[in-house]
Amino acid sequence: MTKILLVEDELHKREELTSCLEEFFGAELQLDHVGSVHAAFWAVSVSELDLIILDMALPTFSAEGKVADESGATERGHDQALGGMEVLRALKSRGVRLKIIIITQYPEITVGGKRLKLSEAAGVLSKRYTQDVIGAILYRYRSPSNKSKLTNLLVRMK
User: Fold this and answer.
1) How far apart are the first and last CA of the chain?
2) pTM value?
3) How far apart are CA 153 and CA 137, in angstroms?
4) What are the boundaries of each domain within the chain?
5) Residues ≥6 apart with Cβ < 8 Å to 65
6) DSSP strand pairing (79-80 vs 58-59)
7) Counting beta carbons within 10 angstroms of the beta carbon of residue 9, is it exposed (0 to 12), middle (13 to 18) or buried (19 or more)?
8) Alpha-carbon distance values, 119 to 112, 138, 150 (Å)
9) What is the tens place of the pLDDT at every residue in 79-128?
């Protein structure tokens, strides 16, 4: 059984990635989804995982389970362009080391105030946060390249 945590707040991305993971792992997949920094903190503290697929832009909290205010809106917390970095920091501070695949819609990410091309991110993030970042995927809406890139990284992981 392969236990994977998919940290993604956008439904269309989550569905596309889930489909790819189900096809790749079949019955050997145990997949959990969370959609916020806070939910990811909780999930990694209560589960042993084989892999995290981590979006970089995440809200602080998920809207699920939150009480609506008088206008009917639920609180998602603040959207964080680098919410995924908070998850990586939490893993490091807890002494947890995991395999991670980064997925983002941005061709660059900021690490320690320095902008990095996505192709450089895996090595830098692995060292900075003492994780095994297998690779980073530049997500493109409903593109076949998403599936091929994720599949290639999953093959490398095995």
Assistant:
1) 13
2) 0.87
3) 9
4) 2-66+74-157
5) none
6) antiparallel
7) buried
8) 17, 9, 14
9) 556 789 999 999 999 899 999 999 999 999 988 888 999 999 999 999 99
For the chain, give the mean pLDDT. Answer: 88
Residue 146 gets which letter from DSSP?
Answer: H
Domain 2-66+74-157 -> CATH class: alpha beta
What is the average pLDDT across 1-28?
Answer: 96
Residue 41 near residue 23 (C-beta atoms within 8 A): no
| Per-residue three-class SS string for 62-97 | CCCCCCCCCCCCCCCCCEECCHHHHHHHHHHHCCCC
Q: Which of 18-32, 54-68, 78-92 has the highest mean pLDDT?
A: 18-32
Provide the pLDDT for residue 71: 41
Quick one: pLDDT band at residue 67, thresholds 50, 70, 90? very low
Here the tokens at position 24 are 């790749």
Question: Nearest to residue 57, comparing CAs of 35, 33, 31?
Answer: 35
Neighbours of 109 (CB within 10 A): 23
